């Protein structure tokens, strides 16, 4: 398998569940021949003739999916019906439905799982249609790359999420820090987090970590490594590179905070994603990487008496532009769709500036069209513009085994993180190899 640009997050699924789902999906190419229509039948603009289309979406994307469907449905004869699938059930549902040729017309999924689905024949090849888009270069490319296998393109961006750095301006002022200047290096991150920790306030800590949350941890650390000029995996996504100099510096910074009183918030070591963002939102954390999609919520809370926040890209070991982990969901036409031309009408509409403006920018969500990112947020809070601006330096790691290596409960990545922050840091080489062993399967 070859891929172009390797530049995409989260699905916290028990390893056993992923393994079971993989067993369902692995024979897809052989068992699921695809009873749907062909991409050869698709005109450039698709077909809008009143067809009812079904779209599967992870349940945690309900608000965004509803906004998109409402915008499309009111302006087209075709109608999109959104079917929400519990995030933890999506893998198994896709596997089972693929074998019975009963996938929906349109299927969206976590970008870190898209490479596996694409390689297993879940989606229809729409290379000709994607390459024919006049505005392809204006789209966030990570979600296209995630669904590209051996030069064939299967997916487009759907929902974009990105990691950003946030800090509590109120705690910064109390700690004698400049509230308008967050850390521009990993070293400054440590210094500023420690300054907040040294306040000694009950329940207040310098930073917070998702110790048992693989997705939060990659959101947190990978951008720091990228911004330092190093990689987290090789180009093929089959080898971990988390034992390099930048990785060691990032892990040491967090380990030093763990050894500092109030340096890392209580509960971090066992945080399993369920409350990862809560301590900062409650005004108890000084500085931490955060989900960019939640910045608007923080700003809204600020207007109602919540903590005042600053936003920036996530820094590396040296001053520079910072980086971001680009996540979210990609979307494609399933192999089983009998309405490929109509499904493409929806997808090509989704890429347009008007659609991205109405369905995402006007709702405070992150658009995937870079022109809308640049021009469509003029009237929103500057911090949302900053959060969107990190996309240009963001990255999307691509590997068919990303979930198993990084996101699954008890994954080798989580073990590495536990060792590096709270355990035996001398295990880095061995823990990195354990991640490689999974990636290379």
TrEMBL record:
Xref: SUPFAM superfamilies: Periplasmic binding protein-like II
Domain of life: Bacteria
Signal peptide: 1-29
Key word Lipoprotein present: yes
Alphabetical keyword list: Cell membrane, Lipoprotein, Membrane, Palmitate, Signal
InterPro entries the UniProt entry points to: Bact_solute-bd_prot1 (IPR050490), SBP (IPR006059)
Protein name as annotated: Extracellular solute-binding protein
């Amino acid at each position: 398998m070859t891929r172009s640009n390797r530049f995409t997050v989260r699905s916290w699924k028990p390893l056993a569940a992923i393994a079971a789902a993989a067993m369902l999906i692995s024979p897809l190419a052989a068992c699921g021949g695809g009873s749907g229509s062909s991409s050869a039948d698709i005109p450039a603009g698709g077909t809008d003739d009143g067809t009812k289309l079904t779209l599967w979406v992870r349940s945690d994307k309900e608000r965004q999916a509803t906004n998109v469907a409402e915008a499309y449905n009111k302006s087209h004869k075709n109608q999109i019906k959104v079917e929400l699938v519990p995030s933890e059930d999506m893998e198994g549902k896709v596997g089972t439905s693929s074998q019975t040729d009963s996938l929906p017309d349109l299927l969206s999924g976590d970008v870190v799982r898209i490479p596996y689905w694409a390689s297993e024949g879940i989606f229809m090849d729409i290379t000709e249609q994607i390459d024919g888009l006049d505005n392809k270069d204006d789209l966030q490319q990570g979600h296209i790359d995630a669904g590209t296998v051996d030069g064939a393109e299967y997916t487009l961006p759907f929902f974009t999420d990105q990691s950003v750095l946030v800090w509590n301006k109120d705690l910064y002022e109390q700690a004698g820090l400049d509230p308008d200047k967050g850390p521009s290096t990993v070293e400054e991150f440590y210094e500023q987090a420690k300054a907040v920790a040294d306040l000694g306030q009950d329940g207040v800590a310098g930073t917070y970590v998702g110790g048992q949350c693989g997705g939060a941890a990659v959101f947190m650390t990978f951008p720091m490594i990228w911004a330092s000029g190093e990689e987290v995996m090789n180009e093929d996504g089959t080898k971990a590179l988390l034992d390099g100099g930048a990785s060691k510096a990032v892990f040491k910074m967090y380990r030093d905070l763990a050894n500092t009183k109030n340096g890392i918030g209580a509960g971090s070591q066992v945080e399993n994603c369920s409350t990862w963002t809560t301590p900062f939102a409650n005004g108890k954390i000084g500085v931490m990487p955060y989900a960019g999609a939640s910045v608007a919520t923080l700003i809204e809370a600020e207007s109602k008496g919540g903590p005042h926040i600053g936003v920036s890209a996530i820094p590396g070991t040296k001053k520079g532009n910072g980086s971001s982990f680009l996540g979210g969901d990609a979307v494609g036409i399933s192999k089983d769709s009998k309405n490929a031309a109509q499904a493409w009408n929806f997808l090509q509409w989704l890429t347009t500036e008007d659609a991205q403006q109405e369905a995402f920018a006007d709702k405070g969500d992150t658009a995937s069209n870079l022109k809308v990112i640049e021009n469509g947020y003029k009237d929103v809070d500057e911090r949302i513009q900053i959060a969107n601006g990190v996309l240009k330096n963001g990255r999307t790691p691509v590997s068919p085994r990303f979930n198993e290596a990084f996101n699954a409960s008890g994954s080798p990545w989580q073990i590495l993180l536990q060792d590096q922050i709270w355990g035996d840091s001398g295990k880095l080489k061995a823990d990195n190899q354990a991640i490689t062993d999974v990636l290379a399967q």
